[in-house]
Amino acid sequence: MKLHGFFRSTASWRVRIACALKGVSLDHQSYKLRRGDQRSDAYLALNPQGLVPALELDDGTVLTQSLAIIEWLEETIPEPHLLPSDPIARAKVRAFALAIAADIHPVQNLKVLFALAGHGLDEAAVNGWAATVITEGLGACEKLIADQDGPYCFGDTVGLADICLVPQIGNAKRFGVDLAAFPKLMAVDAACAQLPAFADAVPGRQADAE
Amino acid sequence: MKLHGFFRSTASWRVRIACALKGVSLDHQSYKLRRGDQRSDAYLALNPQGLVPALELDDGTVLTQSLAIIEWLEETIPEPHLLPSDPIARAKVRAFALAIAADIHPVQNLKVLFALAGHGLDEAAVNGWAATVITEGLGACEKLIADQDGPYCFGDTVGLADICLVPQIGNAKRFGVDLAAFPKLMAVDAACAQLPAFADAVPGRQADAE
Lengths: 210, 210
Prior knowledge:
Chains A, B: One of its GO terms (biological process) is glutathione metabolic process. Chains A, B: It is an enzyme of class 5 (isomerase). In chain A, 52% of the residues lie in helices and 7% in strands. Chain A is built from ten helices and four strands; from the N terminus they run βαβαββαααααααα. Chain A has a four-stranded mixed beta sheet, with helices on one face. The A-B interface holds A 48-51, 61, 63-65, 67-69, 71-72, 75-76, 87-88, 90-92, 94-95, 97-99, 101-103, 105-107, 112, 115-116, 119-121, 125, 129, 132, 139-140, 143-144, 146 and B 48-51, 61, 63-65, 67-69, 71-72, 75-76, 87-88, 90-92, 94-95, 97-99, 101-103, 105-107, 112, 115-116, 119-121, 125, 129, 132, 139-140, 143-144, 146.
């Protein structure tokens, strides 16, 4: 399988972790997002959204949207589970994942930051926008796992929530967010960093890292 | 079950449709979003994100995030299916749903529009932002179903993709988006409007409609 992505894209990062946890090895094709590679005709033919990642299967089928890709991995390679078996527990994990993947990341991604700059916001205001969105969002995430005991977001099995959290923490650091307010999230981040699937997926270890 | 929501919230609207399709009757509690009801202490205790919707089950369990709620409905009330059975087909439907729920809606929702106004954008610029995000996003969605024959997004069974599309078309109309460029999406919207579950879920038919 080939992952069309970018080392720093948090959505690509999620898929890298999930594939590693499932034992799926990936070829990688890199798209420099600031240069707009993801809006080339060739890539738009793969993914009309013009966003990374896209997962190209060996038969040519192309899957998009990191959470949809991860659900597909979960359905086709059940072990190790990335979602618990109980429906309520699954809903809680998915809600946490969506609190990041739908409510933080899309509002602070490069596309939105470029658009803000186009509306006249200076660099400090644009970066401040990202930091505010991340701080508010992680504040809610900290509360969503307030009754959990770790070491991972939802107990002693790593899964979808952790896969979304760790890259978002990475983005938080890039934007200078004060992470001291999120002790549970940071403990999860530290626990995940001990796992090879997470350690190998960090942006700095990718072939296209700048 | 009680749905904590708002008549105009597209995420609440999705859950209204899904529950109707599954035959689940709902009590409703309304939160005036412009007034900030969703940030009251009472509501934050239910949902730390301070966003609607939240689905409160009869035993007091609270589920959040519309897509997580709908996946829970699908897992606990399998019929009628809102997702196909084939894993690739499921991934395509989920990707379409996320293209709306993660990449359009969060970037044009009230919270972001308020923040833009706070950064000095005037009303025309703020509404233009929303219209641009929706236009670009629906353009990609139109292409994601280019090879589909209808009447619904993915064939002759209504499901998760349609549940996300119809409220987003509603938002597009509010922001004056030119919908003529999206003939396949509009045909799906028209087909869904014939179904009671969709017709009854429109904002204008809710008790809290203004």
